[in-house]
Structure formats: C-alpha cells, structure tokens
Amino acid sequence: MTFDLLRASSRRVFRPALFAAGIALAGCASGPRPVSAPAAATSAQNIETIAEYLNLGDTDTARKLIKASLKRDPNNATLALLRDSVTRDPVELLGPKSFDYVVQPGDTLAALADRYLGNRLMTYQLARYNGIAKPIQLAAGQTLRIPGTAPAPVRRATSAPTRSAPAAAPSRAQPARPQAANPAPSARIDPVAARQLRTQGLSALNKGGAAKAVQLLRRAAVLDPGNGAIKTDLARAERIAATVRARK
Question: How many whole angstroms separate alpha carbon 132 and alpha carbon 203?
C-alpha cells in the first residue's frame, strides 16, 4: 500500500516537470524571430521613385506609392510633403504672392523649385501652382509664377577711375625670347560644344524624350568631363529614362 502511494505521488510530481521541460525545448528549437527592416529605410527608397512619377505626371501611381509608404512610415515628413503636393491646394501651400519668371534654356522645374523654394521635392507643388500637369514638359520662353517675392537684381560693381601712370623712359629694345609652344588642346575637350549639347539634352528631357536626353548629355559629359552640372543632369535623365522603361 505504501509503495503504491509513493509511485502515484512521483507521477504527479514528474509529469508537470516533463511538460515544462518540453515547452522550454520547443522554445529553444524555434530560434529568435527575424527582425524586420525599419520602415524609414523603405520609405527613403521610395521617395525618389515617387518624385519621378510626379515629374512624369503619373499621379495615380504616385498616390498609391505614397499611401503604401505612409502606412509603413506614418511619421515621415518627406512623404507627407509629397502627399500634400498631390492633395492640397498649391496656393494654400505656397501662398498667393508671386512674381513672374521667364523660363531660360536649360531650366527645369526641379531646378527652379530647388532655387526658389529651397526643396526640389516641391517640384509638383510648383507645377500645380502654374497649372502644369507634367513638370517634365517645360519650354524655354514660358512664363511661370514663382511663389514669394522677386529677388533683388544683382548690381555690377563699378570700378573707380584710375590715374594714368607716368610714361616710362624709353629703353633699349631687347631681343624677343623664343617662347615654348603651348601644347595643343585635346580634341576631345570642347566646353562650348558641351554646353550646346547640354541645352539640347535638357530641352529633349523637358519634352519627354528621356532616352534622347541621355544620349546628348553623355556626349556633353565626354566633351567637358569636369562639368558637374552636366553630370547631375545626366544622372537625373538616366533615372527618368529608367522610370519610363519600367512603366512600359
């Protein structure tokens, strides 16, 4: 009788212990859960894509990307700015006061937004402010309304009149020394032609010809490899061309 009681008691003690040990082993076997990437990193990758779609006038795709990105990263200020660029009244965002600006060859709305609004991601706001559906389509000679006050014109500094120096006493003529011939410039470097190609490339980009713009800007970069503006324009044209190809 005593032996049976001891055996029953041991069963009641060991069964919960075995059950707890099994749970612990199962937890160890499952391993640590993978850590997902932060939402901010994903949003940063989408911002440039959203900006390019807005630049092409594809607001439907841009809206979807903005909505999905804000769902993952609701506190992202840049995404909120892009959302407001599409949904809110541009006059409310930028103010009613403006001045006229005549588009020059090579101008882009992105560059003008960066120059006058301080943020190139406000390009679509500036486009809607002027009733432009596709910011990429901008023509030289077109008049835009730029929010704010016109900057003061830059005055050229006038130099004070200088007194003429007294004539030097005549000196004996010295025989001319032969000068070393300057090396002929490389035929591949031609900044003037590079500027012309850049203007043509930006004009093609503003008319929607991203592929042609890439070709022209690449030629310009070869003719003037040290020109940072050409490199920047080429990189932007290549991004737009890639976006256009992805949509096909």
Answer: 16
